[in-house]
Amino acid sequence: xxxxxxxxxxxxxxxIFTEITALAIEHQAVNLGQGFPDFAGPDFVKAAAIAAxxxxxxxxxxxxxxxxxxQAVAAQWCRDTGREIDWVSEVTxxxxxxxxxxxxxxxxxxxxxxxxxxxxxxxxxxxxxxxxGGNAIPVRLHPPTDGGGWWFDADELRAxxxxxxxxxxxxxxxxxxxxxxxxxxxxLIAGLCQEYDVTAVTDEVYDRLVFDGARHTSLATxxxxxxxxxxxxxxxxxxxxxxxxxxYVVGPASLNHALRQAHQWVTFATATPLQLAIAxxxxxxxxxxxxxxxxxxxTARRAALISALQAAGLAPLPCxxxxxxxxxxxxLGIDDDRAFCRSLIHDxxxxxxxxxxxxxxxxxxxxxxxxxxxKSLATIAQARERLGGWRVRLQG
Length: 396
Ligand SMILES: Cc1ncc(COP(=O)(O)O)c(C=O)c1O
Known about the structure:
By secondary structure, this protein is an alpha/beta fold. The protein folds into 2 domains: 13-35 and 291-395, Aspartate Aminotransferase, domain 1 (Alpha-Beta Complex), CATH 3.90.1150.10; 43-288, Aspartate Aminotransferase, domain 2 (3-Layer(aba) Sandwich). The chain contains 14 helices and 12 strands. Helix 6 links the parallel strand 3 and strand 4 (135-140). Bound molecules: pyridoxal-5'-phosphate. Pyridoxal-5'-phosphate (PLP) binds at residues 35, 96-98, 122, 171, 175, 203, 205, 234, 236, 242, 245, 247.
């Protein structure tokens, strides 16, 4: 029997992560491709999960999330932004940011509605838009040419809004570029959302990972934006437990209500003991100095990977946030990032992700390789050794 795939999934194919991971295993490469930590999550968070399981918190949670975790998220939002929010109606817990983003689009986008987003874009955005039946309206982020950061053309963004989209999907700090949208850029985006009555869904999973004095600003905190913004986050990134898949969404009751209409039938609820452990993590993190420690450790990992790439003749572009470094391959005379990443695994034993996969039309993307530094210093040192040997062989 031939299985006929529904049109909404028929074009999805196999993700680049599957291909690169399989190649990395085959060649025993140091895997700087997929974005997850290869080091342990914090002991106090793991202990809280183990205790929750032992204490029999093992049955379904309430669909919007355990009260304790929603209260912790609401208190954190108040600490970070100064705004008091209602944990009952303005916070929803999801199975990772991935589920939250999909729920949001399923809940807010009708077939034919436009969704504006910047590309390169996290790889779930386009499939999510497709699942919702929406029309993708990508706006290009351009690689820096003058030592500055990735940038966009304001006229291009205005033209995208003039197509009267329903939703703007914004990711800051941004994967894969490491861009942190500036207050001026956010003001422009906020103005357009209000002018064209667009709902914003912001993906802020790397909000704690910013460097060189950069400051993360939530779009929802700009004047006029709270009432039209859903802010998505992920405990997996912040607490180095990506496999737990605990995400959360903050926004006005009306938008949370909309999101919950999808959430109740997509997963209904997410893992009870892990929600409890993340409540402990969020509550205790400030007093434990956890965020400062996280930032210091990631600053060291980023510096180690920058130095390893530079030593191999691969100059990384500026990265103000996230845990990714990208390398523009054009100065090396390379125009195919997929071929480059395959040969890097094969010839050098290091895996990276070709950033052209993060575009609607990869053929028109600049050739860029993305390297993840959510890796132990030992892993990065191993990558450095291999990259050094590869450079010598290239020159030899
Ligand atoms: C920008 C971005 N959004 C969302 C996610 C998914 O987060 P989660 O693991 O919580 O589903 C990722 C994971 O890599 C990401 O990079």
